[in-house]
Amino acid sequence: EGQSRMTLAAGLAIILFGLCGGLHARAMAFAMHLTDRKHITGTGALLIALYVLAAAHIAEAGLYAVGFFIGESTGIGGFAQSDVNSFMDVFYFSVVNYSSLGLGDIYPTGHLRFPAGIEALNGFLLISCSASTIFLVTTRRHS
Predict the structure, then answer these.
(1) Model pTM?
(2) Contact (Cβ atoms closer than 8 angstroms) between residue 96 and residue 62
(3) Tens digit of pLDDT for each residue in 114-141?
(4) Which of the four, 12, 19, 26, 50, has the lowest number of CB atoms within 10 Å?
C-alpha cells in the first residue's frame, strides 16, 4: 500500500509539473505577443508582462493547491496542522511553497511531501523563465 501511495504522489507531481510548464509557456508567449506592438514600449510593456506572468504564477500555484486536495482525498498525505481545512489554507501553502519562500507554518505530511518538493522546483524554474521573458520584453527594440 505504501508503494502505491508513493506511485500516486509521483504521478500527481509529474502531471502538475507538466500542466504548469505548459500553462507558463503559453503565458510567456502571450506576454510577448501582447507587447509586440510598436506603440507598447517601456513601462507599458513591463506592466503587461508583469500582470500576465503574475496571473500565470497564481494559476499555477492554484493548480498545485487542487493537486494537494486531490492527494489528501486519495490518502497519500495531508497537512500536520489541524486548522488547515479550507482551500484558501492550502492555496496559501501552495503560493508560499511555489515561490520557495517556505515559511513553515503549514507543511505537508506523508507522500504529499513529494509533490510539495516538486512544486518548489517547478516554481523556481518558472519564476526564472518569467524573469527572462520580462528582460526580453523590456529590452526589445522595435524597428
Answers:
(1) 0.94
(2) no
(3) 999 999 999 999 999 999 999 999 998 7
(4) 26
